[in-house]
Design brief:
Order of helices and strands of chain A: HHHHHHEEHHHHEEHHHHEEH
Distance between the termini of chain B: 49 Å
Largest sheet of chain A: 2 strands, antiparallel
Oligomer: heterodimer
Mean pLDDT of chain B: 88
Strand content of chain B: under 5%
Radius of gyration of chain B: 21 Å
Structural class of chain A: mainly alpha
Number of domains of chain A: 1
Largest interface: A-B, 61 and 60 residues
Low-confidence stretches of chain B: none
Strand order of the largest sheet of chain A: 1-2
Shape of chain A: globular
Low-confidence stretches of chain A: none
């Protein structure tokens, strides 16, 4: 039983991690594509239109990858988490079905129209199709976050005698206090990723001294979007989320902040340190006193319950992983803000395009927003443990009763092999598209 | 309300098999009959332009099934664990085959992805047919062995095959001689459908040859159909009763027969679209007849210990089903509108289209 749950969790974690590489780019990128297209309609400068079309090509590759890795996500609720699906399907089935019906459909249909239909439709309709692609991909995020919000903080349900969760209030699913901050935080984080991608491609063009005109446009746009989004992702939305965790999941809050013991007057904020689960303390700790209490409650000596206040069964089962995920996300987010602020300053002083060391940094930092996005999700999901539906349904109670661990390991290995191949092909394709640039030179 | 959702999901699934069915079929035809590079390219394109918007219907069906019949969704998806995951892998291979083929110009690259598209289309058609065969035959609900249940009565787990390969075994596997027959019917049906699609949408050099191929495949289909019907009642007793009680259900087998008989006259048809309509009737009639024969059962039990799964004992709450009706109606209208827009924009032969690049 133990190893069965382990493989089920590992397979879900692996497949969702790989999947989320793609939507996190497409959501943010669609916003930037709409911006480029809208700019073009206003200033009629050809390169803005080229930029919109070029990034839609990158979008399309990512979208295909997102589709083929996304369908397994929908199926896995049933294949690996059958008991969970049976008990809660009446509720989360609503939001998941709406995602499939509205957002996926909007995206896939208007993406094709955007790519093939510019001449056919004219410029204004072309902008509209781009906007609908954006709407579809953000709606997708909204429905998935609504599903997740219900698992983090269940609302609008009733539990029957046979253990089934039935929907009592449909609109409560969308007014869930967990949903809006999580959605905004997630979408802004996805704009951070896309800003970095756009800026990084721009830096590449400028550094290699080819298609520099596009390179400068991408750098400028990426840096401006990146600065705004990396600030907003921390304040107010990240802050708002942390307050929600403190309020609704205090045990997870203690674990992710690394507070082993409750302090009488005000909790410190941990910057660095390694959780030592044997001695129940942080090794090599660097912390600033009272800041956590202030950030969370705006009171310097407000008491925050540490992990000692909770029973072992209530605490997340992998505290170090949760702690590291959260701290990596916050740490990277801070670096992004600093880097984008510096770049924006140089852009304003008209020195950015000549600042080669900084351009190299922008180019090579592109994996890190992905890591920050994923560790953000790990924080949410590891923090929800040991529950599937927080406080109500334990993870161990949700697995498929009939699927043995041997079968799950077999499919897990298959997914690993297949996704390695997909990952390679993806890199080749994206690399080729970037290398060709917005206007491929014909030899 | 359960009946409404059953019909809605069955409709969406049928639409998926009709639309994505031509992609699978084009893959099968491509694998066995395409010869010149130009034909290969245009056949791949006739599927490649549409596969992702067609797959929307699968995702919609999956989501609606999850929402409306969560117990059925949980039971079937975990019970058919291995084949379902394998189907997911095949869907991935098909998609990347279609998407990657045109990315590089050298021949080996194209050959690899052609095979990826063709073989996975063939296997997907086979697997979908086998899945339908399993639903018709029923499964060992509760995992009963010697009168003792291994799981709760609405759960099961099927091995890929049972050593007897017989649908009459007490513990049938996913693959037995009956489900293989249904699988072959699906392969042949979709191959015919794909061939019609290629004739309709392309100017490939094999178009006239394809009509002969359709004719021959249709003979095979007729033989398989007759054979499957003779054993159908042995595999699932009383499965014809529904048609006796509610004669209007006979409409569905008649739809299938119209398609089957009509396709024998493929060479005489005046318009290409007629052939495509006939193979659409085949798919529509085949799926709806099978489901109508079971209704309201959606998964029969091969043992007597446990009740079959029906639309009533697997559905979500009444409130959930009725509130979902509101948004689903909007969704259906949107899907319908988009479907028409797409078909109009992408009308005509693929070869003649200008994609602006």
């Amino acid at each position: 039983m133990e190893d069965m749950i382990f493989y089920d969790r590992l397979q879900f974690a692996f497949t969702i991690t790989f999947h989320y590489i793609f939507p996190q780019l497409t959501m943010g990128l669609s916003l930037m594509i709409v911006y480029f297209k809208w700019k073009y309609l206003r200033n009629k400068i050809e390169k803005y239109n080229d930029a919109a079309k070029f990034f839609m090509k990158i979008f399309a590759i990512n979208f295909t990858m997102g589709v083929v890795t996304g369908i397994p996500m929908e199926f896995q609720f049933g294949t690996n988490w059958a008991k969970f699906s049976e008990l809660t399907g009446g509720i989360i089935g609503q939001t998941l079905a709406m995602e499939g019906m509205f957002s996926f459909f909007l995206e896939s249909s208007f993406l094709a129209l955007f790519i093939f239909g510019e001449k056919l439709m004219g410029q204004k309709l072309h902008l509209l199709t781009g906007f609908l692609v954006f709407l579809g991909s953000w709606a997708s995020g909204w429905f998935i976050l609504a599903t997740n919000a219900w698992m983090q903080h269940p609302v609008g349900y009733e539990i029957l005698d046979n253990g089934k969760y039935v929907l009592e209030n449909f609109s409560a699913l969308f007014t869930n206090p967990w949903l809006l901050p999580a959605f905004l935080h997630n979408q802004l984080a996805s704009v951070v990723t896309s800003s970095f991608v756009v800026a990084s491609i721009g830096a590449f063009y400028v550094l290699r001294n080819k298609q520099t005109e596009y390179g400068q446009l991408f750098l400028k746009t990426g840096v401006i979007f990146g600065l705004i989004s990396s600030i907003l992702v921390a304040f107010p939305t990240g802050d708002w989320n942390a307050k929600n965790v403190a309020k609704f999941q205090p045990a997870s809050f203690a674990a992710m902040e690394g507070i082993f013991e409750t302090e009488n007057a005000g909790a410190e904020i941990v910057l660095v340190g390694q959780p030592n689960m044997i001695e129940k303390k942080l090794d090599n700790k660097i912390a600033v006193p009272n800041i956590l209490s202030f950030l969370t409650y705006q009171e310097w000596d407000r008491q925050i319950p540490g992990m000692d206040q909770f029973k072992k069964e209530e605490l997340p089962d992998n505290i170090p992983a949760l702690y590291y995920s959260y701290h990596i996300m916050v740490g990277l987010g801070t670096i992004f803000m600093a880097l984008m602020a510096l770049s924006a300053f140089l852009l304003w002083r008209k020195k950015l395009y000549q600042a080669r060391p900084l351009l190299w940094a922008i180019m090579f930092l592109v994996p890190f927003p992905y890591i920050a996005n994923l560790t953000g999700w790990y924080t949410a999901e590891l923090g929800r443990q040991p529950y599937l539906v927080y406080g109500l349904l334990r993870t161990a109670e949700g697995v498929s009763p009939t699927v043995s661990s041997g079968n799950t390991l077999f499919t897990l290995l298959g997914f690993v092999a297949l996704y390695m191949l997909l990952g390679l092909l993806f890199l080749v394709l994206v690399g080729k598209t970037i290398n060709e640039g917005p206007k491929p030179q014909i030899h | 309300m359960e009946t409404f959702w059953f019909i809605a999901i069955a409709t969406v699934l049928a639409i998926f098999f009709i639309l994505d069915g031509y992609d699978f079929g084009a893959g099968i035809i491509h694998l066995f009959f395409a010869e010149t590079e130009k034909d290969k390219e245009v056949i791949t394109k006739s599927a490649g332009l549409f596969w992702d918007s067609n797959e929307v219907w699968l995702v919609a069906a999956g989501g609606m099934l999850f929402m409306a019949f969560p117990t059925f969704y949980a039971s079937v998806f975990s019970g058919f664990y291995l084949p379902l995951i394998i189907v997911l892998w095949l869907i991935i291979f098909r998609a990347i085959g279609l998407e990657l083929r045109g990315q590089f110009k050298f021949q080996m690259w194209k050959d690899i992805w052609d095979k990826s598209f063709g073989v996975s289309s063939l296997l997907l058609a086979l697997f979908f047919g086998i899945a339908l065969g399993n639903i018709v035959r029923g499964v060992n609900l509760g995992g009963v062995e010697n009168g003792v249940s291994t799981y709760e009565g609405h759960y099961f787990f099927l091995p890929l095959w049972d050593s007897s390969f017989s649908p009459l075994s007490k513990t049938p596997g996913i693959i037995d001689w009956f489900t293989i027959i249904i699988g072959l019917i699906a392969v042949v049906t979709l191959a015919i459908h794909g061939a019609n699609w290629i004739i309709l949408k392309t100017n490939s050099s094999i178009n006239s040859k394809l009509k002969i191929i359709i004719f021959r495949l249709n003979i095979a289909l007729a033989v398989l159909t007759v054979f499957s019907l003779t054993v159908w009642n042995t595999v699932n007793p009383n499965s014809f009763d529904n048609f006796g009680h509610k004669p209007y259900l006979l409409l569905f087998p008649i739809i299938y027969l119209t398609g089957l008989i009509g396709l024998f006259f493929i060479k005489k048809l005046k318009k290409d679209i007629h052939g495509f309509v006939l193979s659409t009737l085949l798919i529509l009639g085949g799926i709806t007849s099978s489901l109508a024969s079971l209704f309201p059962v959606i998964l029969p039990s091969v043992n007597t210990t446990h009740e079959p799964l029906t639309i009533y004992n697997t559905s979500a709450s009444e409130y959930g089903l009725s509130v979902a009706l509101n948004w689903a109606l909007i969704g259906f209208v949107l899907l319908g509108v988009y479907f028409i827009v797409q078909k109009r924009l992408m009308a005509g032969k693929i070869d003649n289209m200008d994609y602006g690049h």
